[in-house]
Amino acid sequence: MSVILEFTIDGESFQLGQVLAPPPEMSVELERIVPTGAMVMPFVWATGDDHEAFETAVRSQAAVESFSALDQFENHGLYRLKWVDAPTDLIEAIAQAQAVVLEARGGDEWVFRLRFPTHNSLSEFHNAIIEQDIPIHIDRTYTLTEEFDLGHRFDLTQEQREALVLAIQQGYFASPSEVSLDELAEELGITRQAVSKRIRRGNQKVLQKTLLPSVSER
Prior knowledge:
Layout: E1 3-10, H1 15-19, E2 27-30, E3 43-47, H2 51-59, E4 64-73, E5 76-83, H3 90-96, E6 100-106, E7 109-116, H4 119-131, E8 136-143, H5 144-149, H6 158-170, H7 181-188, H8 192-216
């Protein structure tokens, strides 16, 4: 049975976090990653208003061979990072344990949500981080069955779920809309751009989970 692990780690405690340290007021998030040989070349979303400084800082890192901007709109940018040598710390431990990265986002501190195929693979990951003295803080572990019971079936983060629920309750999706993004952002205590991203990414995950399986069955 697959097992899900949620943990946090300081950005300075692993190589990817060091390389992707964003300027103030910016945040980064990895695209969902399946453990293959391409895992060490992640796709990265960066959100904020200082992309030029962010790109310059990442490309200046000795460990980075290239950092390519693939797409940009508003204050969001999608990048592909290629290493000179594959990281040998947290990322390698994730790949060796064959874990799927469901969520990875951060700045000064990173939040990870991983899915392991078995309890043994989770134990392998745990042993690896202990041996390398990688200081993660485990928030919780649960099985796939518990994931459905807890309402995680759409792979929504807690923040995305909170934003979507509030948007529905306040009538954001009504026509005409009964609340603005600015009003939602004020209630959540975040920026307008942040709440927009949470709603957009949350909607995308829900639609992928509900519509794409039915299309593949035809």
